[in-house]
């Protein structure tokens, strides 16, 4: 697993990562989500021993990354897919990665097959790769040591919808076999379809975390019924805060509580869902609004 405890990084008087603590667990895909400049890459660099924290610590499989014996056999890392040597072929990049951590050449063919790069593509120089192909190659390099943990910075960047769907299957399978996955993105849509748990970061701080369902529940419950006025009345009488909009009623309680109150009032529900009409997108924008460039400029 990955455990960050009070992880902080300061550059002069600028704090890029401020006191973040979270755990990414085996068997689940944890999405690290935040707008540009939120501190995701800096946090991942600290987790993989590339940047020393100013304070706090990040442990991977119970140790600091640099203290892991042959870390490539335990932790697959992809921080910058475009950093691969442009003059080498994909196969050369993977062969070098395999040699560095001491795995045999069969791992190269297996890695290429896993990420769907053909023999012909593997023979081309990386400078001629599309961004999506580089991401696939980066993933193959991260997976080559058969690690238990994956730390991936913006792995879906440059992938087309089919590519994102494919990556989701790959990471899901990895997690289902007991692996731990931490992946970052600035796009909710990318993370939402892949991740079980979300850690949302804005301006270096964690602003929300939990499963998609838990985060949606924080926004309340969206409900429609055959008589919204009567339902709003019943909810208010039960002490639940209710607001009305074109999308129906938004009740500040769980969907179970709304269902029970409607049952008691004998009102038929026609629609019941966690979260506001804007869903997680609205939550993400609200939580990170004051932290993002647009929020700061406004
Ligand atoms: N070496 C450095 N020196 C000074 N500031 C830095 C350094 N590295 C990162 N920062 C700053 O820290 C902040 C967080 O950057 P980081 O790259 O971690 O963000 P990010 O969430 O990964 O963003 P993006 O989605 O754009 O990749 C930014 O304001 C960045 O300019």
Describe the protein's architecture and organization.
- The chain has 298 residues and is of the alpha/beta class.
- The chain has two domains: 2-211, Rossmann fold; 220-274, Alpha-Beta Plaits (2-Layer Sandwich).
- It has helices at residues 40-47, 90-101, 106-115, 119-122, 131-143, 161-176, 188-194, 212-218, 228-237, 255-264, 279-289, 293-297; strands at 2-11, 14-24, 29-33, 55-60, 75-78, 149-152, 180-185, 197-202, 205-211, 221-225, 242-245, 248-251, 269-274.
- It has a six-stranded mixed β-sheet, sandwiched between helices. The chain has a four-stranded antiparallel β-sheet with strand order 11-12-10-13.
- Helix 2 (90-101) packs across helix 3 (106-115) and helix 3 (106-115) packs across helix 5.
- The longest helix has 16 residues, at 161-176.
- The protein is elongated and about 70 Å long.
- The two termini are 39 Å apart.
- The structure holds adenosine-5'-triphosphate.
- Residues 11, 14, 16, 34, 36-42, 186 line the site of adenosine-5'-triphosphate (ATP).
């Amino acid at each position: 697993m990955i455990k960050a405890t009070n992880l902080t990084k300061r550059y002069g008087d600028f704090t890029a990562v401020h006191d973040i603590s979270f755990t990414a667990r085996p068997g689940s895909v944890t999405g690290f989500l935040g707008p540009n400049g939120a501190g995701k890459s800096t946090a991942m660099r600290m987790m993989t021993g590339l940047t020393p924290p100013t304070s706090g610590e990040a442990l991977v499989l119970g140790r600091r990354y640099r203290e892991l014996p042959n870390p490539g056999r335990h932790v697959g890392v992809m921080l910058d897919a475009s950093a691969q040597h442009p003059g080498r072929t994909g196969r050369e990049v993977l062969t070098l990665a395999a040699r560095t951590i001491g795995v045999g050449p069969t791992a190269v063919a297996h890695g290429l097959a896993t990420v769907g790069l053909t023999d012909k593509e593997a023979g081309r120089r990386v400078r001629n790769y599309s961004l999506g192909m580089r991401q696939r190659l980066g993933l193959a390099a991260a997976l080559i040591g058969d690690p238990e943990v994956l730390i991936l910075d913006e792995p879906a960047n440059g992938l087309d919808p089919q590519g994102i769907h494919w990556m989701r299957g790959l990471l899901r399978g990895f997690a289902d076999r007991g692996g731990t996955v931490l992946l970052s993105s600035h796009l909710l849509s990318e993370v939402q379809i892949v991740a079980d748990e979300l850690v949302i970061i804005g301006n270096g701080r964690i602003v929300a975390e939990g499963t998609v369902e838990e985060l949606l529940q924080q926004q309340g419950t969206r409900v429609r019924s055959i008589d919204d006025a009567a339902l709003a009345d019943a909810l208010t009488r039960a002490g639940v805060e209710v607001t009305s909009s074109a999308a129906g009623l938004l009740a500040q309680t769980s969907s179970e509580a709304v269902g029970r109150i409607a049952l008691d009032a004998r009102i038929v529900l026609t629609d019941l869902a966690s979260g506001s009409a804007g869903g997680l997108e609205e939550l993400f924008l609200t939580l990170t609004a004051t932290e993002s460039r647009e929020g700061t400029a406004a």
